[in-house]
Automatic annotation (TrEMBL):
Subcellular locations according to the entry: Cytoplasm
Organism ancestry: Bacteria, Candidatus Yanofskyibacteriota
Name used for this protein in its record: tRNA N6-adenosine threonylcarbamoyltransferase
Superkingdom classification of source: Bacteria
Chemical reaction(s) catalysed: L-threonylcarbamoyladenylate + adenosine(37) in tRNA = N(6)-L-threonylcarbamoyladenosine(37) in tRNA + AMP + H(+)
Organism from which the protein derives: Candidatus Yanofskybacteria bacterium RIFCSPLOWO2_12_FULL_43_11b
Amino acid sequence: MKILGIETSCDETAMSVIEISPRQARGEEITVLSNVISSQVKLHAKYGGVVPSLAAREHVKNIKHVFNLALKQAAKNGKWKMENGKLPVDLIAVTRGPGLGPALLVGITFAKTMSWLYKKPLTGVNHLEGHIHSNWLSPVANSKSKTLNPKQIFPALNLIVSGGHTELVLMNSRDQYQIIGETVDDAVGEAFDKVARLLSLGYPGGPAISKTAEKGNPDKYILPRPMSKSKNYDFSYSGLKTAVLYLLRDLYPPAGGRKPDAKIRADIAASFQNAAIDVLVQKTMRAAKEYKVKSILLSGGVSANKLLRKELHKNTAEAGIKYFQPPMEYTTDNAAMIAVAGYFSRSKNKKTDYKSVKMDANLGFRPKR
């Protein structure tokens, strides 16, 4: 079965074609035939963040080219020929939320058009469920991957970390989960962006902070670990961001007109990153112990952070818990993860016609038990 995935929830226009072998359910082999991403990062960098209307216009401009390129690469890797007037997939999966409304609408409209034009079933996918399924993918260069054995990984704990989300999700199976912890204010990725702006490191903040922190001393400044001692598994990053703001104000009073030099910025970046990651790892490991999970899965844009990967790998090894993280190419928003999530969600969605898919920019992450 071939699935076309479409992702336009923010500032990446992405399409992917995957093929899932006709083996028994939950034991299939996934082959990523193409994974094309057109990023708008450079375009939005000068604004310090994503501008929704501008993102939508770029999606409109790029989406047809990305579609053609995804099909061309899939045909080459899958060794099949394109036929005029035909779309060689069995299902179309598109992100329907959460995300930026104008951006989502571009992808959904394109998906509906393809579904109607080529008479293909269409299913809408929750963007966060897509990130969860990124752990079931292998790089295109090593295109084949077998789905994780449910007996070996469930119950599992999935840490979703991105610019808009910070959640701990307990998974009893691939499609049965519940949120046991989430941010009460800023998401961790949002905090990275805001601190990077305070340090004049540019956008996006995650990679900028991580790169700058490599040259700094993580123990130079003692920053708070909000809610690290709370009995629940919720997170808070607003206070940590504010602590960095006050630290800068104390070191460099506005009236003085001075700015932090490279060394100071590196030390602050390292200290901030250390505090932010520390809370994530602490709470994840504590939850894993309480719920007696077999494995921990990492997903979302911040899953690309080297320190986070290193610390989770170290702590899970010490605790004897299996640990899975997506390949780097699937940490950012991509359509391969949407295609996989669409494949598994279609069995739950009775309606797969193009009229049934509705955009929801504020789509929640509903517990499924």
